[in-house]
Amino acid sequence: MTSRRPPPARAVLEPFRVRILLLFNAALILSIAPFVLIRLLNGQPAAALVNIALIAVAMALAERARRTKQVRGAGAALMVFYTVTVVALAVTRDAYIALWLFPVTVANLLVLPRRWAVTVNLAAVAALAPLYAGSQALAVLTFLGSLILANLLATIVAQVTESRRRSIERARSVLRESEIMRSRAESLARMGSWQWDAVTDTFRPSPEWRQVTGVTDEPLNRETATAHVHPDDLGAVRDSLEHAIATGTPHDIENRIVRPDNGEVRWVRVHAEGSYRDGELVKVYGFTQDVTDRRRVEDSLREKSYRLGERVKELDCINRISGILQDRGRSLSDSLGELAETLPPAFQYPAITAARIAIGGRTYTTAGFRDDAISLDAPIVADGATIGRVTVCYLEPRPAADEGPFLAEERSLMDLIARRLGDVVERERAQRELQRLVYEDPLTGLPSRAGFVRRLKAVLDGSADGMYLLVVDIKRLNDVNQAHGFRIGDKLLKAVGEHLSADIGEDECVGRLGESYFVALLRGSDSDGAHTEAAVAGWVERRLAVPLSVEGRRIKVDTSVGVASLGGDCRTPEEALRRAQLALHAARESDDRTWVAFTAALDREAMERIRITEGLRVALDCQQFELRYQPVVRLADGRPVAVEALLRWRHPSLGWQMPDRFIPVAERSQLIVPIGLWALRTACRSLAEWRRATAADSVRIAVNVSVIQFAQSDLPAIVRSVLDETGLPARCLSLEITESMLEQQPLTLLTQIRRLREMGVRIALDDFGTGYSSLAHLHDYPFDQIKLDRRFVQSCVERAYSREIVRMVLRVAETLGAEVVAEGVETPQQVAVLRELGCLLGQGFYFGAGVPAEEAAAMWRRRLPAPDGVT
After folding, report:
1. Cys-Cys crosslink for 640: which of 144, 264, 631, 685, Cβ 3.0 to 4.6 Å?
2. pLDDT tens, 768-811?
3. Residue 123 neighbours by CB distance under 10 Å
């Protein structure tokens, strides 16, 4: 709150002073004008001219004061002019001195500071008497003396006056600041002060009081000042005020008011104290403060405190119930009594509260429970169905002040407890179901892997001698799913489980490991270990010997079985299953055995595969692979027309490793994909370099590829990328596949072979006649080259049967438009027979073994001319 300081009094009166000065100046000039005429007529022209000059000067100075609208400056000059004129008239003892003295006095009062104006005027008046007495010297002395005395007296009076003025000004400033601070303090505290004159019944409030109460600026008395009090609090306010007036004690009360400006109800605190004279109340001073926010906070705190107390009881009840429900040693039905006893203490009146819990056909009630009493219940719901109820009743009526039979918090507590009980029921059901799912196969109803392992562990912890573990694989289950659908496949698995588990001994068990795998724990019948292993494996074959009927379809089930004997050093379920699965793997790899028993040799082979797999990973990172290049020649003249890239592994400690040792492991571990990519890129790069160094435009290079490369990657895209990278034409690359691959991925293989041939890449069928030979393969797949297996080549000299097979293959290849390469040529007699039969191309040690890239490049430079421009 700020106040603007008023302008000084002199500034306000300045225009008025100017007008007074101009008025007296005009009157003086008009009064002197007749005397100027008289002097002219009396023959005193000099005096008349002096008077005229004086009038002119006075008029000029007065005009300047009018223009500037200020007495100072021009007014001061005019005052000096008047004073000099008076002194001159006095010296000349002019009769008009009295006429001049009056305007001089007025000018002094208007222009000079008050002290000097009084001084000069008193001195001039004091000098008049001696002047008219004819004593000019005495007049001057009197004037000067009076001037000094009057100035001294005026100085004393001015100092006293100035001191009082400053004191009054300071007091006023302090009062103004105090009023501002009071107003700000009241505004910040939302408080307004007031006073009531008991004699005149006048109520005078501060502006802040009106802001707090919303009362307008109308005059107030005691009655109207309390008219805005809430009707419900008006009686208490008046009683408190009357008591304070009667006893002389302060009046202090908090009550509600209704603001007349907006109708809002607010809480205020009113404090007042009376002022008495001769025992009679004269005035009452007080303040009114808005405490609505504080009251709301206090009400909220009280409400929260109450609710907190109730929640503490409820929380204690919930914690106790949670502790009971979390006791894994007891079921829910065994805990109903303790649960029911926990409920009454959580309600407002535990002494008259009784409870009942009914769930799952069992009921427990606390003492005194009555069905006809006022009760509160909540349903117990589990899996969407009501399975019981929780009920609480009051044995006696609650106090009349209470609203409703039960509080909302108590209803919420009952609902929460009912939900917790329902959750526990669902949890127990879920645990039972989880136990079933974990330990039981959902499809066949047999023990699952976890269930079988638990049973197997119990057997191994006891006496496992004479017990055998079998892992059974259902062959070609995927073919059944593809031919008849997964529903038939699942029913077939269920039928297999029923046949295997029928009529087994009490200490025997059949389970399902998953997918097409079953597991059986059987007791042997013979003392001879080998015979017993064969007997338990035959037990599986006998039970599945007859085709199984599934929805009218008769399906023959073939199996592979791995057998491991228990006891001895096989003491854990994990070790027993590992041994049986190793044996199963060997049975699946075998061409003529349906079951294999675990032996130490199988374990060593498994360890060897692991070591080879780790070695292959290292070989890839450390560049331990190399390619050897074996020529393919024309049998007619021995000139090379192509080379085959043969993969070799230089092991740092074992030396050179042949492909038949590590390629099967690489295929099983999927490492054949990066290894094959490396071989393809290296072979194509080598041939591209030879082509640039020689005239070998028609020379081709053959690279063996695995079925895994077709299945796990987009081989045509990879080949295209390698050809683009190395700059080798597609017609110079030949990819060799084996007949066994045609049985494993027929559709995928055929699609990718066609894409490769469209690119210009040649496709060769390697090792034709190794056991999977089928003329249908030659009909279905577009081969550019057929490589005759070495067994037919090496026996064609001695055996006519082999020569006829070679002749037949040559005729078929001619019909298909494919060329034939005889592999494994080692003698000149074999070359002669092959020429006689019409075979044009051959490959083998007779023409050269596989050599490194440098020697192969030298071979091409010796046998082929260099291209133009290359020396």
Report:
1. 631
2. 866 545 566 677 778 899 998 888 888 888 888 888 888 988 88
3. 19
Contacts of 574 (CB under 8 A, 6+ apart): none
How far is it, in rounded angstroms, from Cα 414 to Cα 132? 122
**Neighbouring C-alpha atoms within 13 Å toward the C-beta of 278:** 0
Q: State the pLDDT at residue 123.
A: 54
**Eight-class DSSP state of 249:** P
Answer yes or no: is pLDDT of 258 > 60.
Answer: yes
Distance CA 129, CA 214 (A): 73
Whether 344 and 367 have beta carbons less than 8 Å apart is answered as no
Q: Distance between CA atoms of 25 and 77, rounded to whole angstroms?
A: 13
Note whether 469 and 520 are within 8 A (CB).
Answer: yes
Q: Where do the H-state alpha helices sit in 470-551?
A: 477-484, 486-501, 529-543
What pLDDT digit, counting tens, does each position of 551-566 carry? 888 888 888 899 988 8
> 38: burial class by Cβ within 10 Å (0-12, 13-18, 19+)?
exposed
> Which of helix, strand or coil describes residue 352?
helix
What are 809-833's pLDDT values in tens digits? 888 888 888 999 999 999 999 999 9
Helices 74-91 & 114-133, crossing angle to 10 degrees? 20
pLDDT for the residue 871: 36
Residue 733's pLDDT is what? 94
| pTM, entire model | 0.48
Residues in CB range of 418: below 8 A, 6 or more apart: 378, 379, 380, 381, 389, 390
Q: In this model, does residue 147 exceed pLDDT 60? A: no
Q: How far apart are CA 54 and CA 289, in angstroms?
A: 74
The string of DSSP codes covering 359-414 is ETTEEEE-TT--TTSEEEEEEEEETTEEEEEEEEEESSPPPTTS-SSS-HHHHHHH
pLDDT for 15 beyond 90: no
Burial class (CB in 10 A: 0-12, 13-18, 19+), 753: buried
CA-based end-to-end distance of the chain: 108
* pLDDT tens profile 490-541: 999 999 999 888 888 888 899 998 888 999 998 876 544 444 777 787 888 8
Helix (H) or strand (E) holding 856: helix 853-863
Rounded-to-integer distance, Cα 425 and Cα 444, Å:
28
Give the DSSP H/E element, type plus range, for residue 110.
helix 97-111
Q: Which long-range contacts (CB under 8 A, 24 or more apart) does 53-58 make?
A: 54/81, 54/85, 55/29, 57/81, 58/25, 58/28, 58/29, 58/82
CB-CB contact of 510 with 446 (8 Å): yes
Contacts of 100 (CB under 8 A, 6+ apart): 28, 82, 85, 86, 89
In sequence order, the 6+-apart residues with CB closer than 8 A to the CB of 756 are 715, 716, 719, 735, 763
Q: At 158, which amino acid appears?
A: A
Please answer whether residues 584 and 471 qualify as being in contact, where contact means their C-beta atoms are separated by less than 8 angstroms. Answer: yes
The answer to whether residues 195 and 282 touch, using CB atoms and an 8 Å cutoff, is no
